Amino acid sequence: MKDILADLLRLLELERLEDNFFRGESRDVGSSRVFGGQVLGQALMAANYTVKECEVHSLHAYFLRPGDVKAPILYEVDRARDGKSFTNRRVVAIQHGRPIFNMAASFQIPEEGFEHQANKPDVPGPDDLSDISSVTEKTLKTLPLEIRRFLTRKRPMEMRPVDPIDFTSREPRDPVRHVWIRTVDKLPDDPDLHRSVLAYLSDYYFVGTATQPHGIRWEQRNVQMASLDHAMWFHRPFRADEWLLYAIESPNASGARGLATGRFFTPGGTLVASTAQEGLIRVWPETN
What we know:
about 35% strand, Porin, globular, alpha+beta, 13-stranded antiparallel sheet
């Protein structure tokens, strides 16, 4: 396994302090704050550690405060309910004595039922697309330091956008984005791990999609963007180390907030998970 992916698995493998208390590390992914996907993935792992036989089918989370990448995160799990078919857990992430995140997750004993799903968008496959890091040195030199760090640092996943982002343009675009995504190497055969990894990956691209019709970019110095909440539903089995199409669209922006929804499809068109997130978007007048 590649070192960068092994490091992600170590990040998701929490230290058990007591039955319902776990401690996780943080990683700098090119931002001054803890990456939201990291907290999502770790919180889901903490909940998984307290559940037997059931599989997570949904989670609903709120980001309360920015996370400190230099400090560990304490995860406290409340075993809200252990039922015959459904089990519920509440998780609070704490740093410096204050909650930075909370999440409710629901688990279900697998069972059969009715089936239908949305259709996969008709877009090119990943084989002929370039990774998001494929930016020329000339373009990199024109970008702010924070986005240069994001684009050039090694990541545990491949991300191949169907429509590459033009980091030098502020031309308005439709609030739609399609990205093929998978880990850079094979993962162990643990469905709980694959779901936690997908939760980690699901926080990419969301709020930015809501800004596309307005010709702004998160790397602008007069823009404040932050995730406010995150919801996720797991529909069918999948592997996070095989290509998945992340189809994102933003149906609304108002009140300094943007809403985005997403769906994960296999190359064959199977819908395996859905997501939703609202994010803060503030823009101040530009100054020279």
